Amino acid sequence: MQQWARFAILGAMFVTAYLLILAWQKDYGQKAADHVEPPAVVAQAGNNSADLPTQQSNSAATDVPQANNTAQAATSSAQTTQHGLISVKTDLYNVWIDPKGGDIVRLELLSHEKSKDSKQPFVMLQNDKNIYVAQSGLVGPNGPDQNSTGRPLYETAKTAYSLADGKVETDKEGQTHKVLEVPMVFKMANGVEVFKTYRFTEGAYPIGLKQTVVNRSNANWQGQLFAQLKRDDAIDPGKSSQGIFTLGTYLGGAWGTPDEHYNKLKFANFDDEKLNQQAKGGWIGIVQHYFVSAWIPDVGYTAHLESRNSGKDHIIGFRSPMVDVPAGKQYEFKATLYSGPKIQSELKDLAVGLNQTVDYGWLWPIAKLLFVGLQFFHGIVGNWGWSIILLTILVKLILWPLSAKSYRSMAKMRVIAPEMQRMKEEFGEDRMRFSQEMMALYKREQVNPLSGCLPLLLQMPIFLALYWVLMESVELRHAPWILWIQDLSAMDPWFILPLIMGVTMFIQQMLNPQPADPMQAKVFRLMPIIFTVFMLFFPAGLVLYWVINNSITIFQQWFINKNIEKQRAKTAE
């Protein structure tokens, strides 16, 4: 029976390691992120009308929606082939807008660094060596984005905007924020004016989009709003370098509706499993490690969600219903763009299921509880490393009654080990008699050898869930602890924590009953070394959890061993 318990513990440890290795391999990309060129060399994204979606399902040559009717060929007299980008600076963003089409062609996150060793802001959207842009406009029979001369060239009052110059507004909760609006206008030859306005709010990542059609012509205007994300096959720049391993999560498309909250759609399946869904209150997005970009249609209309490939680029977006604007009237389209870190508190208020882009895997109930606990302790101590330590202590306290029973059984096994060795020598090769005597000894001493598996089986799902919390929670990206640990989501650069973990695992092993079988004893002596090698490349925060867990277990096991030995001595007297 003891032998089976040993094998069960060994198997559980290897299962843990195997599941973590599988997690490493899931959705991996290539080697390293491409170099990001400075904003000065950003290309003009809106020059190509092939970036827009099409109503023709088999039209692979175009990205923009094409109506069945010929688009109106009226253009602005101000349209030229040369134009500069419009820059916008807020407390969270550096944004560049291409007036040709009014697309966001570059977006930098000022609160997130490109890497731990770089002070450059993280580049979310770009249009240079790599393509990842947020496009929007009006298509249909009279849509300006669907005319014979290409995307419309919008006019602006200036080419540089700053939130510092914005106006102060009060929200529904009575809090004041600065708000910056970037207005653009396109005047068509027939008198129709198209206004496109981006709205930036202080301290908030969502960007509002308002597209207004003012029909000053003598005929009805017909068209629809489209908004989409266009990305090439570049690797995920949000992945963390882990030495010979590279931690990464899902990179690809995603969408949701009130009925189907969160669905993944890999880039390779944008055509084969094409998104073609009607939804009111839905969203589309592109998900990567720690960050997400998403378009959220206004809840006032039912949007058509769609995906397709255009050459080597992948496009996922939506279209509003076709709108008829009578002469002398106007109509306003609305949508919201989110392009930034996967902050659950912000995402859950934008659209149903958008917060599920923070994907904790199949252990998400445990992972969410762990994250809530980490947030609670972080609110007290202000450091994610100490928060992990406090969370570990809390988890051990919760599991203490269950694990204590197991440790008492293991302590008794340690005490009766000499008696078992004596029985083995006495009965020699008579295995049946030895098994009978051993079971009688277990019953007399009230020992359950399988109970030694319980602590590890309890810790395994917590360990795996914490792994995904560290992987998916952007709050822990580049989060420092103390001294040499300056990024809890990356491996320990000096391998100190993994070595400490190996030492604690060895001490813990010495406090447990040793296997009677010599081969098992050799295997178990190798386990601290094997797991130390594994832990060399794990996130430092995860290794920190295991070190504290082992340290508490050592104290708990030592305390119980001493009590059992005292009780045994009293009984012997």
UniProtKB/TrEMBL annotation:
Its membrane topology: Multi-pass membrane protein
Transmembrane parts of this sequence: 7-24, 384-404, 447-470, 490-511, 523-548
UniProt entry tagged with the keyword Membrane: yes
GO BP annotations listed: protein insertion into membrane; protein transport
Ranges for domain Membrane insertase YidC N-terminal: 86-371
Domain of life: Bacteria
Positions of the UniProt region annotated as Disordered: 48-80
Any one GO molecular function term: membrane insertase activity
Entry-linked PANTHER family: CYTOCHROME C OXIDASE ASSEMBLY PROTEIN COX18, MITOCHONDRIAL, OXA1
Protein name, entry field: Membrane protein insertase YidC
Gene this chain is encoded by: yidC
